[in-house]
Amino acid sequence: MKLQIQNNFTTELPADRNQTNVPRQVHQSAFSFVVPKKPSNPSLIHASTNVANAIGLSQEDILSTDFLNTFSGSTIYPGTKPYAMPYAGHQFGNWAGQLGDGRAINLTEVVHENKSYTLQLKGAGPTPYSRTADGFAVLRSSIREHLCAEAMHYLGVPTTRSLSLMLSGDQVLRDVLYNGNPAYEKGAIVCRVAPSFIRFGSFELFASREDHVNLKLLTDFTIKHHFPHIQKEGVEKYLAFFHEVTQTTLDMIVHWQRVGFVHGVMNTDNMSIHGITIDYGPYGWLEDYNTGWTPNTTDNQHKRYRFGNQPEIALWNLYQLANALYPLINDAKPLEAILEAYSTNYEKEYLNMMRDKLGFQIKKEQDVVLIQSLTQLLEKVETDMTIFFRNLSNVTKDDAVIIAFNTIKDAFYNEKDLDETILKDWHVWFEKYSIRINEETLSDSERKNQMNTVNPKYVLRNYMAQLSIDDADKGDYSLLNELFEMLKNPYDEQPNFQKWFAKRPDWARDKVGCSMLSCSS
Ligand code: AMP
Ligand code: MG
């Protein structure tokens, strides 16, 4: 197995001079060298061939002992020196101080075909940032991360990738519901891959300590290596950088809203500087369209990170990043202007994304109202988001209202919920929709094809991940493999996977792991 190693981060930024691996506050450092804990009996459960290829590895490499040893943290790849990164963050709206890679260890950067990647093990043991926790991860949450990161990639949503999923062979103690019932679970390690793992919180840490020297070093490093097209200097450079982070973050959120993804823990330490989805914890997929939904039981009371609030929270997080970068800019006005543009831009992009979902190529002013009335209707009774939009593409220009309505009827969880008023509202909506698609120039089949490129047929429904976890716990990975294969082509019909194009079964409605998840992982 041959990787092309690069060590920009550790050669250009200041290292923590203390090399003891005990939880502590780390100052004036961008990283701490740390060695992964040797797993007692590592084994490979699954690897993403596509990610392996991207970093220059073959199928043969995946099956090698080198691969097993390197990506389980068993041995250190020659020429590399693993490290963990400090960062801070706002958790659930409150300042949390120093956090950092408590159970993530960066192995190295690699270069392949002129692209650079950082490879990071999650669950490979304690670091100086582990605080009171153990540094490990369990199989359950690692399967969720591995499957979902790759599913998101294939859906076209910007995300960190997942190279591999391994069992460590060790047991890890977790209290899933935080109710005093800890139990041992299988330990696992995922290797995540991203351009870098620099987060909003990385900048917040230095800013909060008024360490402007390292704030500048980190920002300059980030721009030089990850935003090389920014050719400006001084304040203009930092503003261009912030502007771009705002834009890519916004784009990512529009994608989340398009596919019905709820991140669950949008703390500023979980926001990538690249505008890619990071940290798959208690995330979930909307089944019934409900803007108030969050899968995260820890957020049950305020539902800060509910589906409908994600665009607003991203902006809140960007304000924190702006505050952190402020010492490099010393002028609030241009930062505020960028932040203020976010809302207008979001409205615009959201509208266009919804037009795509509805099959509108032509932009009409009245689309705003049509979309608003649709999202209101979708919330009236339990309606499956994925099935609704996918089936909507089967409506034709000549369909009578009742035929059109019947096309999407499968999306309702309980048809009995549809009282007379709601039925009437739906009929009114479909009348308007019919007029609207008749204004389009594309034929029915062309429109359908177009819509099917943005409305996935298959998403990683919460209960599906849970079923594969239950099997994997017993050592059966066939369902995990099946889901992985299916999610590679989420927009294709894939008749052999038709059974997964279905509403959430009733047993999964209020089940832990399916509709309710805690941060315990
Ligand atoms: P999260 O909510 O997963 O984004 O984690 C918040 C912080 O807690 C981060 O600094 C993590 O590295 C840390 N953390 C979470 N789980 C563990 C664990 N099992 N061991 C050590 N640190 C952890
Ligand atoms: Mg995190």
From TrEMBL:
Binding annotation for Mg(2+): 270, 279
Pfam families in the record: SelO (PF02696)
Gene transcribed to yield this protein: ydiU
Catalytic activity: L-seryl-[protein] + ATP = 3-O-(5'-adenylyl)-L-seryl-[protein] + diphosphate; L-tyrosyl-[protein] + ATP = O-(5'-adenylyl)-L-tyrosyl-[protein] + diphosphate; L-threonyl-[protein] + ATP = 3-O-(5'-adenylyl)-L-threonyl-[protein] + diphosphate; L-histidyl-[protein] + UTP = N(tele)-(5'-uridylyl)-L-histidyl-[protein] + diphosphate
Enzyme Commission identifier(s): 2.7.7.-, 2.7.7.108
Protein name, entry field: Protein nucleotidyltransferase YdiU
InterPro entries (alphabetical): SelO
Chain residues that bind ATP: 100, 102-103, 122, 134-135, 192, 199, 279
Known function: Nucleotidyltransferase involved in the post-translational modification of proteins. It can catalyze the addition of adenosine monophosphate (AMP) or uridine monophosphate (UMP) to a protein, resulting in modifications known as AMPylation and UMPylation.
Keywords attached to this entry: ATP-binding, Magnesium, Manganese, Metal-binding, Nucleotide-binding, Nucleotidyltransferase, Transferase
Top EC group: transferase
Species of origin: Flavobacterium sandaracinum
Family of the protein in this entry: Belongs to the SELO family.
An MF annotation (GO) of this entry: manganese ion binding
Active-site residue numbers: 269 (proton acceptor)
Cofactor or coenzyme needed: Mg(2+); Mn(2+)
